[in-house]
Design a protein that fits this description.
alpha/beta, 48% helix, Prot-tyrosine_phosphatase-like
Length: 174
């Protein structure tokens, strides 16, 4: 017989799996909704924002664009979201392997301060996916060592992250 915690984990995993699959069939702006409060995606185009994402119900967006290519797109993106009444926060990250403990702390503070649902996006979506899975793991009192396996069960491969895997475990477990 499973404990209540294991049953709860099974229910959460089942709901998330169903939700991720349903969003994979969505129109041409793909994103993955992991909880009712958090979703992630690659950086959307202006068209994808204007023709789809503004209609989904996001209240806030965190754009984790590359520090290597900052500039006018994030300014234009902020204008598009703002015109739709959606808050936009820019949080540039250079690359997944440069994420540190402070980045997780700052993103958690943003997630807790912004109105949800929140979309977090990054260039190809990997950094945003890492942030969302780590935030959900922390909020659900999971162990850091469970994050990569949990993400893999949902079709997201965090293998090969090297030092970042240790950083994830350390932050989730603190």
């Amino acid at each position: 017989m499973k404990s209540t915690h294991e049953e709860s984990d099974d229910q959460l995993l089942g709901w998330i799996s169903t939700t991720v699959k349903s969003f994979a069939r969505h129109w041409n702006a793909s994103y993955s909704k992991i909880t009712d409060h958090l979703a992630f995606s690659p950086t959307p185009t202006e068209y994808q924002i204007e023709q789809g994402l503004v209609k989904v119900g996001f209240r806030s967006v965190i754009g984790m664009e590359s520090k290597q290519n900052p500039g006018e797109y994030s300014t234009r993106e902020r204008e598009i979201w703002k015109a739709a009444g959606i808050d936009y926060v820019s949080y540039p990250i250079k690359a997944a392997d440069e994420i540190g403990l402070n980045d997780f702390d700052e993103i958690l503070q943003l997630v807790e301060s912004l109105q949800g649902p929140i979309l977090i996006h990054s260039e190809i979506g990997q950094v945003a996916a890492i942030m969302v899975f780590v935030m959900v793991a922390k909020q659900n009192h999971r162990k850091g060592s469970e994050v990569a396996g949990w993400a893999r069960e949902l079709g997201f491969d965090f293998e090969g992250l090297g030092r970042l895997t240790q950083t994830i475990c350390a932050w989730v477990d603190k």
